[in-house]
Design a protein that fits this description.
single chain, 119 residues, alpha+beta, Aminopeptidase, 6-stranded mixed β-sheet, 3 helices, globular
Length: 119
């Protein structure tokens, strides 16, 4: 797993990527990073995490809806958003499915890939 600090630094070198802190009122509870992937030209959510102390309380779902909405409003948005996660991460699978992502299969690097379609 990549640290949030690494992701924040990485975001400085990836054109078109944004990083966002996720808050519950004034408490920092998570982090996300997303943007246009230079390899396939689609929006990807590279990082999405909610601190384990705040998981299972609906924060991830609401934060994901905000990310999807921000991408939907982007002038350069594509017709889909991709995300990858460990195949055995059931919490992620449930969250992404509830948010509208559909599994596409295992990537060559071993992650489960899921796609959200605007169309």
């Amino acid at each position: 797993m990549v640290s949030n600090l690494y992701s924040i630094a990485e975001c400085q070198f990836l054109d078109g990527f944004l990083s966002r802190a996720i808050y519950n009122n004034d408490v920092l509870i998570g982090f996300t990073m997303f943007g246009l992937d230079p390899d396939d030209g689609n929006y990807w959510i590279y990082r999405f995490m909610i601190d384990e102390r705040f998981q299972g309380q609906g924060h991830g779902y609401h934060a994901m809806l905000l990310v999807i909405d921000e991408i939907r409003k982007a002038s350069n948005r594509t017709d889909m958003i991709m995300i990858g996660y460990k195949p055995d991460n059931e919490l992620a699978r449930k969250l992404y499915r509830k948010s509208g992502f559909r599994e596409e299969g295992i990537s060559p690097w071993g992650e489960m890939l899921a796609k959200y379609s605007f169309a």
